[in-house]
Amino acid sequence: MSPADRSSGDAAPSSGAVPRPAAARRGSGLALLGSEVSVLFRRVRTVALLAALALIPVLLAVAVRVTADGSEGGGGGPAFLGDITQNGLFVSLTALTVAIPLFLPLTVGVVAGDTIAGEASLGTLRYLLVTPVGRVRLVLVKYAGAALFCLVATLVVVVVGAIAGAALFPVGPVTLLSGQTIGVGDYAGRMLLMALYVTISLLGLSAIGLFASTLTSVPVGAMAATIVLSTVSQIVDALPQLDALDPWLFTHYWLGFADLMRDPVSWGNFADNALLQAGYVAVFGALALGRFTTKDVLS
Amino acid sequence: MTTASDGSPGAALAIETRGLTKSFGRQRAVAEVDLAVPAGSVYGFLGPNGSGKTTTIRMLLGLTSATEGEVRVLGESMPDRSRDVLPRVGALVEGPAFYPFLSGRANLARLDSGDRRAPAATRRARVGAALDRVGLGHAADKKAHAYSLGMKQRLGLAAALLVPRDLLVLDEPSNGLDPQGTREVRGLIRALADEGTTVFVSSHLLAEVEQMCTHIGVMSAGRLLTQGTLDDLRDLGAHRVRLLTPDPERARDVLAGLGLVPDGRAEPAGGPTEARSQQHPPLASPSGPARVEAELPRTGPSPESIVAALVAADVRVRGFEVAGASLEDRFVDLTGEGFDVAG
Q1: What is the pTM of this model?
Q2: Which of A250, B220, B253, B334 has its CA 20 to 30 A from that of B301?
Q3: Which of A37, A128, A131 to mutate to test the interface with B (most CBs of B within 10 A)?
C-alpha cells in the first residue's frame, strides 16, 4: 500500500456513506443559533438563574400579602410597593424595579461573561473553530444568545409577577402615573413594552460582557468584571459631582421605564435609552470582534 | 536532512509548511518547520511533550497565527482559506473537550450544527454512525461528564468523523486509552487511511507511530529534525547483522575477521526494544543458540558473503538477518537523549 497509490485529497472517499456536500456550499447559519439557544437554556445554571429571578416577584408578593393584613401602606419600600395591595398587577412593575439594579445585571453578567470564555475554559472553543464556525459568526451567535437571555429573564420577572399578583391580590383597572385609568388588556400591552425597555437596557451590558469574555479563558473573571462595571456605572450615576457623565452611562436610563406608565406614553427615555444601548453594542461589539478575530486560541 | 517523501515527485501534499515559526515573547515554540505530508499518507508527528507539536497543529488549523512562515493545507493557504479547508479536515487537538452537561450524542450534534456544509437532514444518522464507529454507541446518551478519559478520547475521534474527511489531524489520539482501546484506534486510523484519508497523527510514543505510520517527522525543541518515510528513516541508520548460533565465540571471530565489530557478549535475544523483550521469552537458554550482533557498515561485506564465511568456518547458523537500526536507536541519535523525556 504505497501512499502514492491512495487517492489524493480531492477524490471522494470510496466508502463514505454521505457524499461530500460540495454543491450545498452553506446550510443556514441558523442551525448553530438553534444549538446555542438550546445549550444555553437547557443548562442547569441558566435555569437556576431564571428561577432565582422568578423568586423576586413571588417573594415580593408573598411578603406584601403577609404584612398587608396588619398594617396598610408600609411607606419606605420600592416604588409601587404600596399599590400592590390594591391591584396585584403592580407586582410585575415593583419586581422589575427591584431586579434591575442588581439581580438582572447579575444574571446577565453571568451569561454574557460566559459566552466566549466559557467555551474557552471547556476547551470546546477550539473544536467550534475547527468545525469550522467562523469567528465572526461565533461572536454574533453568542451575542444573540445573550440578548435572548436578557429578554427571557425580563419576561420571567414580568410574567411570574403578573401570575403571583393575580393569585394573591385583587386585579382590576390600573391607574397610570398621569392619572388616567386603563383596562387590564391595555396594561398587559404596556407591561410587554416595559419588558422590552428593560431588555434593551441590558443589551449594552451584554456587549460589555461579551467583550470581557473575549479577553480571558476564565469565565468567572469576565462575569465578575461585567457585574462590577454595572455597579460602578450605577454608583457614578448616583454621584452628583459626576453628573456630566450621566447621559453616557449605560445604566442611566435603567429605571426610566416608568414613563411607559403615562398617557400619552412618554417615549423620550425609550428612544434615548435605545440609542445609548445601540452605541454600547456597536462599540463593545466591535471591540469583541476585533479582539476575538485576531486572538490566538491557546485554550 | 529532509528526504523525498515518497518517490513520486508530483505527489500532492496534504499539509505543507514553509519556515513555520511561532514565538511567544522571546521563546520560539516552533522554529522554521518545513512539513511535507503527502496526500494519502499516515504521517506520524513525533516528539517529546513540549517539543512544539501541538503549537504546530494549532497553526495548521488556524487556531493560532504563525509568527512567520506559510501553511498550506489540502492545497489551500491557511488560515485565510479556513472556511473552505476546515470542513474537509477532522481534528482532535490537545485532548478532547466537551460540554459536560450534554450527552455524547448532543455534543456531537452541537458541533455538527456549526458546520454549514454538514447536511442537517442526515445529522442524526451521521452522529449515530460516528458514535458506533468509535464504539460508543452504548454510551451515546450518557452525559459527557460521566465519560472516562478513554471514552472522551473516543468521542473526540467521533467528532472528527462526523462527515467524510480528506485529512484527519489527530493530536495524541490514544492518550488515556487502555491497550485494547489503543489497538482499536490504530485499526480505525488504518481503515480511514485505506479509504484515502490522509492522517496526520502526533504522538510521543515511538512504538505507536512505528506501528501505524507510513511517514514520520520528528520534532525536538521546536524544530523538525527529520522527516520521510518510515523506511527512509530506518535506512539512514546503520544496519545490523543478527545471527543466531550455538557457536557464538567462533562466529564472533569470523565476523571480526570480516572487519565487523561484534558486540562484546552474547546477549539473550530480544534486542534493545523494550516492548519486544517483554513479549518474547529469551531464546537463548544456556545450552541453546545465542545471539550475536554486529553493526554492518554501508561499505561492509554483503550479507551473503558473511553467511558463506560463517558456514565455511563451521559456525552452525540457525538464524541470520540484516536489520535496519530500530527507530528508537535513530531517535536517540537524533535527539541525543532518551526520547520520551516527559514520560
Answers
A1: 0.81
A2: B334
A3: A131
